[in-house]
Amino acid sequence: MKSKLPTLQRILQAEGFGTRRYCGDLVEAGLVEVEGQPCDDPDATFVHQGLRLTVDGEPWVCHEKVYLMLHKPVGYECSQRPLHHQSVYSLLPHQLRERGVQAVGRLDQDTTGLLLLSDDGQFIHAQTSPRRKVPKIYEVTTADPVTEAQAQALRTGVQLDDEPAPLAAVACEITGERALLLTLAEGKYHQVKRMVAAAGNHVAALHRSRIGGLPLDPELEPGEWKWLEAHDLEALKSAA
Ligand code: URA
Prior knowledge:
Layout: H1 8-14, H2 20-28, E1 32-34, E2 37-38, E3 52-55, E4 58-61, E5 67-72, E6 76-77, E7 86-87, H3 94-98, E8 102-103, E9 111-118, H4 121-128, E10 136-142, H5 148-156, E11 171-176, E12 179-184, H6 191-198, E13 203-211, E14 214-215, E15 225-227, H7 230-237
Parallel strand pairs: 6-7, 9-13
Antiparallel strand pairs: 1-2, 1-3, 3-4, 5-9, 5-15, 8-9, 10-12, 10-13, 11-12, 13-14
Bound molecules: uracil.
Residues 107-108, 111, 190-193, 206 line the site of uracil (URA).
């Protein structure tokens, strides 16, 4: 019976290494190792998920779908064609850009912290759907000292231009003289900045520290990324 497993050249193509032809040439040129062993047969078949390759000297672990967390630094836009800054996509290896990985929602260029990226359309839709109300936690540094009245306004709801009804934070805690921990269930344009402004203060710096039950990995430096494991994807589904 014919094996249903994908060939090495198909796996390389799906992983973003280039066209099937180019990937076949890489294998035939002896530039690919599979699980530590040289393999020069493009039609050799393997289980895709978790396969460990070395391609032209570069180690690579195969993932059928891409789910990543990035520690977004200041000065990067969440756009494929940025206008004024670099693109967050420039922080990823070319193979992932080739696979059409997209940011799950957007952070402003001057916002730092947890950004998810994926090539799974259903996952992106589920995470960004207003109906899912995935909670997102932001560490807000304000320009002026925070008052209890401002925090209370954020909890009970503030009216933003072009919104039909006031928007309220799921939670709002004063964590310092000029610091707030704000949990939002929506992801509207500039939402934190607009809500804080409507409450009578101003955002000086903004950092997203958690989405659902998934915190930004403290080991990740700004600009670094990592693959999400199954338990991370589970954590995302749980409340913050
Ligand atoms: N709210 C904002 O105002 N900016 C962000 O980047 C994210 C949420």
